[in-house]
TrEMBL record:
Keywords: Aminotransferase, Pyridoxal phosphate, Transferase. This is Aspartate aminotransferase family protein. The keyword Transferase applies. PROSITE patterns: AA_TRANSFER_CLASS_3. It comes from Halobacillus mangrovi.
Amino acid sequence: MNQSYLIKPVMRDFYPTAMYGQGVFIYDKRGKKYLDGSSGAVTSSIGHAVPEIIEVIYEQAKKISFVYRSQFTTEPAEKLAEKLNQLVFGEEDEYFSFFVNSGSEATETALKIAIQYWQEKGNFRKNKVISRWSSYHGITMGALSMSGHIGRRERFVSLLERLPTISSPNCYRCPFNQKYPSCQLMCANELETAIRREGADNIAAFIAEPIVGAAGGVIVPPEGYYQMVREICNDHDILFIADEVMTGIGRTGKMFAMEHWGVKPDIIALGKGMSAGYTPMAATLASGKVMKPILAGSASVMSGHTYSANPQSAAVALAVINYIEKNDLVQKSEVSGNYLMNLLKEVAVKYPIIGDIRGKGLMIGVEFVSNILTKHPFQKELSLTSKLVETARDKGLLIYPATAGIEGGGGDAVIIAPPINITKQEVDLLVNLFEKMVDEIQEDLS
Ligand code: PLP
């Protein structure tokens, strides 16, 4: 068995060899069955081996799988762009799609479009992006420069752009030691302070994950946060980029997570659930406001990859979105998410190592603490997150590791985000396996 292509084994001893998937389940070479409780890396949002998608893959492959984006456009790419444009907050604005292959490329493209926007308007100084400390926007250097995920940054810090960062809106571990709503959203106001410190003339955009994923174990901001962020951006002439790579396309009970707050971003990055893992596909959507000076100026976005707008991937992403709409999965994500959340909360009361459970729709984070009253995290040396993930896997449940969003890094959290078409019985099984895992870990720790 040659696993030399693995760059970083997360599981210490080995990776099981996946043989096939069916719905929310994955089967390995030894015949072991896993409930995909995290959709991989919050990606396989409609489960595995959906016949309608397989059919589209086959039909598109028979027609054409690749053309170069500077030589041809294709019907799948055109239809996908049209579909995304319809989905973003109705049809009141026009969003332009730039198709790429990964979430990292989508956020890098967002960064470039934001800088280019200001250049086309004659402003060459506005080229910094403010981000939040507990955030992850991707692994490539531009995306990593905007990310606060310590573990993924530390080896490359000297090469990363030094961009301004602010705190995350983390009510469980408020960076300002305040309580909502008497805090008056100090976390949002910090954006204003950062803009004043850096000078609005130097800032192109603010980027945020609507709900922080891997770098915070699912941090949902308090009501009013994004409305205030949007206002601050408007007041200081700064673009707002929403990184919906993890939250987008139905995951949180809305097609786009920003709909929860009714706030329209200028640029949106998509990935993961957009093609639900059936093919690499991601996108950067830029609003009409952003595209206007670009189209009137150089008339092209200075970015792109060989595989950008690949027709095979575009056909699959379109089929995934149609499948989600046809089966009412955005609504189901909300309903199943509420059901799952309630069951997990019932588990949590029995286990003091569970400090917090939070989320929206089927994107749920569980944070583990050594002391439930002080919220003190477990020692880093314990590698508790890895133990949680491994123990769950042994029991046949896949969950996704995260850090807990403690400013400066650290803490233990996992993300539970099964395919959004998971059934009620499968949610029951998920919770049952999760409880068995927590039970064993709590026993080991005592
Ligand atoms: N943005 C967010 C919010 C993510 O969660 C991720 C990946 O986890 C990325 C960007 C990067 O996406 P990719 O791993 O596809 O490059």
